[in-house]
Amino acid sequence: MSKIREEGVIDPFSVLIDLENGTMPEPSNRITRKASDMRGYYADGKALEELITSGNDPLHYEVLERPVPQARGHLMYCISRLMPGRVGEELFMTKGHYHSVKETAEIYLCLGGEGYMAMKTAGGAWAVERMERGRMVYVPPTWAHRSINTGREILSSFCVYPGEAGHNYGDIEKEGFPKRIFMKGGRIVME
Ligand SMILES: [Fe+2]
């Protein structure tokens, strides 16, 4: 984090984003989720345990960031990198979250790979948007969001959201999403 001059005021700075490889070469934070962090999220819990034990607990996704103050007025940003793979027939995905401050949106600009952004509201609305290099997904306020990698490459995105947004994972842990995305017989299936 940059030097804080007074409350909420920091010095300007710049960060290199490697657009070609969809990464941030010099992040100050790297948040990782391995297969063992994803217990309870996939339909096939047994396949996940096999991946953890026999598959050497592979990296599922990582978030690269240089954080700014988590305060109104700031824009938090990151690079999200979701690995390709499957748990049984279900495609690798992120945990998914609501924002703690529900009135906050998020932008995902996909830099590489292919997949979907799955979104839901607490009221039961459901949506998916395609993710592919150059496509931007707008996640409106109140929508929980999770990305799913349907391809063979890393699904990478540049994300921006209000500094005060925060993350609420607990509700998704309890509710899940209305549909899951599988690869069955070489075809992508949502059910
Ligand atoms: Fe978010």
Describe the structure.
- The chain has helices at 45-53, 170-175, and strands spanning 4-6, 9-10, 29-34, 59-65, 75-82, 86-87, 90-91, 106-112, 114-120, 126-132, 136-139, 144-149, 155-162, 181-184, 187-190.
- It contains 2 helices and 15 strands.
- The model has no long low-confidence stretch (mean pLDDT 95).
- It has one domain: Jelly Rolls.
- With 191 residues, the protein is mostly beta strands.
- Strand 6 (86-87) and strand 7 form a beta hairpin.
- The chain is globular.
- The strands form 5 sheets. The protein has a 6-stranded antiparallel beta sheet with strand order 3-4-5-13-8-11, with no helix packed on it. Strands 10-9-12 form a 3-stranded antiparallel beta sheet, with no helix packed on it. It has a two-stranded antiparallel sheet with strand order 1-2.
- Residues 97, 99, 106, 145, 161 line the site of fe (ii) ion.
- Fe (ii) ion binds next to loops.
Key traits:
40% strand; Jelly Rolls; globular; 191 residues; 6-stranded antiparallel beta sheet; binds fe (ii) ion; 2 helices; single chain
